[in-house]
Design brief:
mainly beta, disordered N terminus, Coagulation Factor XIII, Chain A, domain 1, three-stranded antiparallel beta sheet, six-stranded mixed beta sheet
């Protein structure tokens, strides 16, 4: 009888850390304009290189929240600091497919969610004029003031959600938009990088 209680106590003690260690159940990525994760999606396969694990789970680019003061380290931003998805940080010599944009014109970002979660906000950052698309994205490359912030007040997201922004001016050539979806009830956010061309 006593052995059964000890086994039950050990099982309960082990279950608590496993429960706390599990990732957030919400996932999502920018589907249009296509993010790097969307381009790597096994159903799309819009790039000529092997994307690794991200091809099976484009929705899972999750990392620490608090960007830009916290969050993924420089050079790992597009992968959310997750080494499993490091392919998203590889600039491939600037060969990521781009979406044409025009400064001062509207651009709509559509998120696809495979699981919904309470949300703090969405923030969109763009690389600065003169960005070199052959290098991984760092904070020094980004205008750290978002060109669009969408507060969400802790509400759950639907299965898809779109935000329209005015494209910032002063850029030419290949630039990168870093979008951050901040979750309100976990310590994480989801990161999505889209390549655009002025």
């Amino acid at each position: 009888m006593r052995t059964r209680h000890i086994v039950a106590a050990v099982a309960a003690a082990l279950a608590i850390p496993l429960t706390l260690a599990s990732p957030a159940s919400s996932h999502g990525w920018i589907s249009t304009p296509p993010s790097r994760a969307a381009l790597c999606d096994v159903h799309t396969s819009a790039v000529p290189w092997d994307c690794g694990d991200i091809q099976w789970e484009p929705q899972s680019v999750e990392g620490p929240k608090g960007f830009p003061s916290l969050g993924p380290s420089d050079g790992t931003i597009c992968a959310g600091g997750n080494s499993r998805f490091a392919e998203l940080d590889d600039p491939h010599g600037g060969a990521w497919p781009t979406t044409p944009v025009t400064a001062g014109q509207p651009l709509t970002f559509t998120w696809t969610f495979t699981a919904r979660h309470a949300t703090t906000d969405f923030r969109y950052y763009m690389t600065k004029p003169g960005y070199d698309a052959s290098r991984p994205v760092t904070r020094a490359d980004l205008d750290l003031t978002p060109f669009l912030t969408v507060p969400y007040g802790g509400k759950q997201v639907p299965s898809t959600l779109s935000h329209t922004a005015t494209v910032p001016s002063g850029r030419t050539g290949h630039q990168v938009v870093v979008a951050v979806w901040t979750i309100s009830d976990t310590g994480n956010a989801f990161y999505s990088c889209s390549d655009v061309r002025f």
